[in-house]
Each structure stands twice: as C-alpha cells, then as structure tokens.
Amino acid sequence: MKVSDNNIIDFKVKNFKKFKHFEMDNLGQFNLIVGDNNVGKTSVLEALLVKTNSNLFIEGLLHSLEIGRNIDVESNQNIISKFYVNISDSDIINSEISFSFNTIEQFKEIKIICNQNANLSKFVISINHQNPNIVESYVSKNNIGGNLMPNLIFSSNIYSSFSARTFSDKIYRYASKKDKLIKTLKILLPNITDLYPDKFETSSQTIYARQKDIDKAIPMQLIGEGSVKLLNYLIFMQFFSDQDRIMLDEVDNGIHYSKMKDFWKILLKSSVDNQIQLFMTTHSKECINYYKEALSELGEEFQNEARIISLNELPDKSVKAFNYNYERFSNELELGNEIRGGY
Q1: Is pLDDT above 50 for 74?
Q2: Which structural domain range is residue 162 located in?
C-alpha cells in the first residue's frame, strides 16, 4: 500500500484548548479517536488543522472553531478565547501555543503568540517556523469565510452547501471522477444512476440524484443523512486530493448499522486511493466493531495502517493518548474489553 510522504507520524500540541501538553505517536493512515465525553476528541481534530502555510492554517483553524459562523475579529479577546478553555487572561498573555509534527519527509513546528492589544484593528498572530524570522498573520473580516476547504468536517454541518458548490464547479471538468463517485455510492445505494447540481439555486446549491425506475430526480438529503454524509466525504477526498488529511467528527453519525461495514470499507479504500490520511472520532462501540470487521475483510495492508487512539483524562486533568494497532484493538474487542477511555 502506497501512503503519502506527508502523513503525520507523530503529533504534539501545547497550550491549545484544554491541552497544556498532548501528544500522539505511531499514527497510521486511518486513525479512529475514541474517549469519554468532553475529553477533547474534537479539539484534537482542530489541532490537526495545522499547516506549514501559516495564513491557511490560522484562517482554517478560526473558521473551524467557529464552524462557519462570522467571527468578530475586532475583539481580540473573542478570538483568543477560541484557542483556550478555562485559562486566565494573565496565562493567555504569557502562553505560547505550539503544534509540532513528524512526517516521513520532515519535522515541522509552528508556534503561535496571540497579541491581546485591544486597540488593534486586526487580530495579530505571530508564527515562528523554527527560524528567527517571525511571520505575522493578520486576520481580518475579509479573509475568513466560506471559501476555505473545510478539511475538518463536523457531523452537525453535513448539509453544508460547500460540497454541492464544489461538485457543481468541478463536475464538468472531471467527468471520470463523477463516474467514480457514482460507482462508489452504488455500493450503498444500488439504484443511483446519476448525480447533478441544481443550476437554478444560487445561494445554496443542492446535489440531486437520479434513481433507476424513478422519473423525477430528488435531493440527496431526501435519500438519507448517511448517504449525504458519505457523499460529502467522497467529494472532499476525490476532488481535493491535494489535501494531506481530512478530519471527520462523529464519523458514524447518521449511518445505519446495516450499512456501517460497507461505509467503513468505502471510506478506507477512498483514503488509500486518494492518499489522504484520516482522523476520525466516535462515541459508538458499534462503530468501532464495524471498523474492525471492515479491516478484517480488507486485509493485512489496511490493517497495518489502522489505529484506535483512546483518550483518557488523568487525575491531574491532563489527557493521555493510548495507541492501539489493529492486532491489539482486535484482541481487546474479542475479549470484550473497553477501549473507549474513561475510568
């Protein structure tokens, strides 16, 4: 199996959200993150938005922290609060957020210093790429918005028009990708014969599906939440194959249990085909079991790249990640042991 040289192998973050220090190592192509409520699963996905392009990283991070809502950039305190949880103003002033990661090719570290000068008309973030030159990223109302590739996908936002706009923009230039998309969807939706955007909607385009023996095309939303979710994931991976990784929050939400194993097989195969590393969260033991079953059928190459990362909050409130490879989590599940964290 060929995996991207840009895959993250190890990852550390300091002073971000609830994490004073958090790290994960021995990461694979597929990384399913589990843990108790409020342990920080989604915060890990947000931290993984880190990019070597400082402006793209900051804009994408702030956009995802707001889940697409408008950001009050004239209030530094409002923005700074998005980076921290339960931290005092004095601690913020003295805190330096850092993100560091190893890939096959390189080690990168990005440090962020939030400037809390209330008189600034723009929010200023200083970023140091392991060299003496400080890059200041200026974030204003004009450069945060809905045109960013949202490679952190929230379960609550699956009906976003982003995937429909993307599909509409690229469908005629990439006919083979559309055919591949339909062929893949047929595994779960065997009656689908075509997909196309509604050209008459300008504000929030919809993807319509045509089905065998049904004359009228219908919006994908009417077919089911799980189908929309899978379609979104596939659009992101097939039309944005330049992305290094995609983070999927509550990956199983809306997927019927009878389709769960096939859903996993489609998702994992698409990850490999497009060389996009996956980081996903779930609360569901059922989802974990189907993840294991799908991997069992996909074979050893897929199993070697599969991880379950269990987040546990320790008595001192720090969070530790326990990494299970396929052999280990498969054995634990067969023994009936709990690997979803918590004490």
Answers
A1: no
A2: 158-239
